[in-house]
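Aim 2, interim progress: modelling of the fe (ii) ion-bound target.
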Amino acid sequence: MTITTQQARDAAEQYREEGFALVRQFIDGDALNRLKTETDRIYQAGLEHPRTWRHGNLSFEILPEADFGSRYVIQAYWMSWMSEYFEAFRRSESYRILLEPILGKNIKQVAQQIHWKPPGAGLTGYRFHQDLRFREARDAYVDIAGSTVNTGLAIDPSTLENGCLQVVPGSHKLGYIGLSDEGDGQIMKGLTAEEELRAKGIDPASVVPLEMQPGDMALWGLLTVHGSLPNESQQDRAFAISSYVRAENSDRGEWAFRNGTSIPLGATPQLCKWEQLHERPEPHYVDDKWYA
Ligand SMILES: O=C(O)CCC(=O)C(=O)O
Ligand SMILES: [Fe+2]
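Predicted structure of the complex, ligand included:
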């Protein structure tokens, strides 16, 4: 069983009204087993790198042993460049059905990530924020918030204890409010205090934790206020995030669907995460101790 067109229409409606939606069992069975196996393989590949590493859009964010007592992989970006599985999955029929009622038939992908929260890694929370802050190249888009949807697929069970995503329903109607932008703007350092939410007009009691089973899918927008707590459990929380945009309104991103047809990656990446990649697309390590 996978997502039906009716489920996708319902999710699109909830997403428009509330700024988020949940689709239970977006995938299951064998598809889910393959997702889990491939995710584990990618984690192991990431562990080969002592520090954060980038090659074009493909990247691993590493917490190094020297600073964390053990080596942890907390993020992979654009796994499609090392995984035939993810390259097919990102533009699979399930995603087409999910995305069409929101974005139409011409869709590009501007982000592909796995986030792990390895037990013991400590720095695995994401302060409350709106993802618009991560879109540096604003000129490359028309109506960027209205043309984008973010998708987050639970690979492991995602619970309050292991740091599930939490959203503020209706917050997508507030405009950009700058949560967590102060100071160095790092969203993985520290926690959001309830006072910070109140100062922006958000009642902390309105926050909704999205507990998810493997295969469940969450949707949120670039203006939806969301965050997640660090993992306090002994269970990892792998979560696969992809961001898609209406192709007519974006110069950025990799094609996913053109007139409803699935489009594979080309020979070279459309660089879409860090603007610095344009100067340095070759493989390299990054020494940015953002956690210090
Ligand atoms: O992985 C999570 O829990 C949230 C991540 C997130 O909000 C982000 O990367 O923008
Ligand atoms: Fe986010």
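Residues 115, 126, 131, 165, 226, 228, 239 surround 2-oxoglutaric acid (ligand 1) (CB under 6 Å). The radius of gyration is 18 Å.
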